Amino acid sequence: MLGRYLNNPQTQTLCLRVSFPHIRSLVSIMGDVGIRSNQEVFDVVVVGAGMAGLSAANILHRAGLSVVVLEARDRIGGRIHTCMDLGRPVDLGASWIHGTDGNPLASILPSKRISTSSRSLLFRPDNFQPIPMDDGEALWEKFWALRERMGEAAKRGHGDVSIKEFVDSDPEWKSAVQETPLSQLMLPRMTQLLESIEAAALEKCSIKEFEVDEYPGEQAWLIDGYMPVLEQVAKDILKTDGAVRLNDEVVKIDYSGDCDGGTSSQQPLVNITTASDIVYVARKCLVTIPLGVMQNKHTSLFVPPLPTAKQQSLNKIGFGLLDKICLRFPYRFWPNDVDFIEAFSERLPYPGLTSFIIAKGDEHDDHILVAFASVKAADMIESMADAEVTELVMQVLQKCFSHMGQIVPYPEQVVITRWGKDPFARGSYSHMQTGRTTHEDREELAKPLPDLMSGEKFPRTPTLFFAGEHTVRDHFATVHGALLSGWREAERILKGLRK
């Protein structure tokens, strides 16, 4: 093992970890470029410790490469954030496994507790009276049938139309709406749920969202949170001292090939500079930061600037916003046999706060509701104080449950996300913008740099790679999409290093 220590408190760990097969190549690199006292050398530097970054790093580490993961936050996970502040695990970010049949995450699930139940308690939008469960199930059947028709139409090449345009023009939906007075009242408002699912305004979100292949099976809610799944995926890299470095924000990625300020080298290298002024020198660099951050910071982050095609694709893909308001109550005041509470109404304190998920745990701690706020509602709560947001949520619950003879107690504890204001997220997940995004844009974002197909006379071997849910054609906006992208890039990096 070859290494040295730095005095910087954030990097008091081995700065150079290499397995025996790589010592010769890295010593050669160090001799060529003259490594400075504030530099560290690795085979691969991974930027971002979310699912994409950690899944890739784990594979590369197991292959014997020296790998370091740099994370700007004080925790791993990125948009996976299992919070324990409410007395039991509650996911503030990703919380679902979308389709359990064939999903790469499914092999991890047998040892994890999941819930696939989806019983909903619906409230009328005119008087907030609860709707009988059987009537509610009939309404949901029509809603999910609409969702299926959108997918079928998209795959048939229906065209790049917005979800709103499709809903407004779908004859079967129009017929379903007119069936009964209750369907006339409820179905038009239930489309608000699509906005929460996509984290985007329906007029801006294309039905191409549903054109992609999806895993069949149940939609699973992780009772103990997503963090145990992430820890299982990345178990080897996480137990390696110094391999994951927190509070180490990357501020510049120089992939020009001129390592150490222009010193020539036999191998093109990448310089990764952090806010603590540590320079990491790598044979390969994998960037897994969220799309929202890439859109906001790419001009100052990359040297040289990203190619025009990649910049254009970055700006054509939408990045939506979905926030959560998590409330722990002293006792449960909702029925035992429901999983969701839905209140669709323009009369609510603000539109967009419509859905509550019951964060089920053991019987003694089953007192937590998670409210969802999307798009405009999310924008609104991000500018409000916690007490104001809590009061608005309480108004919704009190309107609904007063008709059931229930007194809604004030919550003992509240945790509110603000993913839009989070400088290391700047939103929630990506979507297809109507008239702008193509699947080729996601493929463009996944291309490594330098691009071997760029037409250069003497193209260099790629040194800069990209992963994340926004780089996946068929499984974007999902955790398994991020996982697949990490595996994809790990394989690509290993293939390049073997040449």
TrEMBL record:
One of its GO terms (molecular function) is oxidoreductase activity. InterPro entries: Amino_oxidase, FAD/NAD-bd_sf, Flavin_monoamine_oxidase. Residues 51-494 form the Amine oxidase domain. Gene3D superfamilies: 3.90.660.10, FAD/NAD(P)-binding domain. This is Amine oxidase domain-containing protein. It comes from Spizellomyces punctatus (strain DAOM BR117). The lineage of its organism: Eukaryota, Fungi, Fungi incertae sedis, Chytridiomycota, Chytridiomycota incertae sedis.
